[in-house]
Specification:
There is one protein chain. Helix content is about 55%, strand content about 0%. The termini are far apart. The chain is mainly alpha-helical. The longest helix has 14 residues.
């Protein structure tokens, strides 16, 4: 009986509107997109990874070693580059961002 009264109270309470998702400041992370970028990145060769790190370093975004390992420092550098160019900050470069990075060096 008490559970039924509580359920009746909940059902009769005024409904609160859902938040307007168009007013959020940051778009939700598109997990499928990041997974696709991870696949594309996995196809990069060791030399391509070194080139990316080298250019990011020359531009002042990366301070780590040029070792072709995309660890935390490389992710931060890629995010900083993306922020500087107005792109979504995923930490994973799109092929177009890679081309832009190479073209701008």
């Amino acid at each position: 009986a008490a559970a039924e009264r509580k359920l009746a109270e909940v059902n009769s309470a005024p409904k609160q509107p859902l938040p307007d998702s168009s007013k959020t400041t940051a778009p939700p992370v598109n997990v499928a997109n990041i997974q696709s970028l991870q696949v594309v990145e996995a196809l990069l060769g060791r030399q391509q990874r070194k080139v990316i790190q080298g250019i990011l370093k020359a531009k002042g975004f990366y301070e780590g070693p040029i070792d072709a390992i995309f660890g935390d420092q490389t992710r931060v550098a890629i995010r900083d580059f993306q922020r500087a160019t107005g792109a979504s900050e995923t930490g994973y470069q799109t092929p177009a961002q890679f081309q832009q990075l190479v073209a701008d060096r």
